[in-house]
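pipeline/complex-builder :: batch 7 item 3
reading input block
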Amino acid sequence: MHELSMADAIVKTVIEAAEKNDAIEILEVTIEIGQMTMLNPEQLKFMLEVLSEDTILNGAEFNMELIPIEIECLSCGFKGEADSEELDHYIPVINCPNCEEKNMNITAGRECNVKNIKIEKSDEDA
Amino acid sequence: MHKIADIEIQHDILIANRKLAKRNQKILDKANVFAVDVLGAIGSGKTSLIEKLIQEMNHPVAVIAGDVISKFDAGRFEKYDVPVIGLNTGKECHLDSHLVEHALQDLPLDEIEVLFIENVGNLICPVDFDLGSHLRMVVISVSEGDDTVEKHPLIFKDADLVIINKVDIAQAVGADENKMVQDVKKLNPDVNVIKTSLKENKGVSEIIKSLEEFMRQ
């Protein structure tokens, strides 16, 4: 259940940024989730909504953007998006799309990035 | 009048943990301490293996015992008169770099050479959280079933050393330990996979040899 601790860290980051920018309301939050992380976007969204209650985040829309897995194959040198056979518990088993080997470095897909927020602020603050 | 504004944040929560992990590793390197993150399934023998290694390694050892409630494992290590820090994760399913950073502050790093960090028994969540260790050792046992590796590929993909424990009872639980070794090799061709039976003291010297090789690198 590390969705809860991640959601907690995301909420803190977002509220801090919103307060710094004199937000009176947070309308949208966009979060990038790497497909190689052990995070389930649906569970994470649920936790975010629960933790948002009674904060400035209450009612905000959470957009989850999935970041595909990119690899550098150590067998054939291929660089780019990997083939992933998504399992029902979000653990992708990845192969090099070129040579189908599994010996590789992962160059993208391990993110949990708070990308941006859309806020409402009063004109006088601008 | 109100206006709408888009604010760029670009703050990666997992990268924040990885940065802290790097800081932990610097602290360990400065003190010449080799740290091993011991990961694995519940009941696979992580604590028993660390107990054996404390007794048989010719290096001064300390242990960080991480668990939902850590006092049980910490109590087992304290019997060997080595520095032990228990880390309670409470509701959390993994250790993170921040918790480990605090434990490092409380350890006599100048007096030790090897630090075992026993993670929470879990083959899923700890994968996302580097701790700053020099080596990730994953411990599983035949009793979890010989499809364990196939079902949790990522932790084996990232492992530096893999232990298949309790091979003495493989037949009794209907598990093929050699299939488990092959499954690991498919995901991580160069990793050293060691079959052990802690009960029969098999494979422990091989683990120590492997750890010492890593320490020399």
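note: Chain A touches chain B at residues 1-2, 4-6, 9-10, 13-14, 17-18, 21, 23-24, 27, 34, 36-39, 91, 93, 102-103, 110-123, 126 (CB under 8 Å).
queue -> next item
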